[in-house]
Amino acid sequence: MAMAFKMATTGMWVADECKDSFHEMKWKKVHRYIVFKIDEKSRLVTVDKVGGPGEGYDDLAASLPGDDCRYAVFDFDFVTADNCRKSKIFFIAWSPTASRIRAKILYATSKAGLRRVLEGHPL
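Structure for ADF-H domain-containing protein, as requested:
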């Protein structure tokens, strides 16, 4: 079984594929976005969907479910006023109104732990 990182505050585990995909997006620019989901039974955060480098924000928005929560990271490229190309990675906590209350609470309490694991900080 793949190694996982435990988020101590919520008892959730983050699959190593999440961290690996995030680093591929951040350093190698092979993904435009990554959508993560929590399996409530196994209490494991896994990769739900990965967007290729040619996809955009509209593709990310279309891949998010209308009735369930998700996390996503999106690599946004832009040009500054000085004509300098930059990139910024955004963390998105998706919690639509149609999702279950239990899922909203689970995703809200696990958000900080997932961010720490993705950024490589100790728990």
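Residues 48 and 88 are 22 Å apart (CA to CA).
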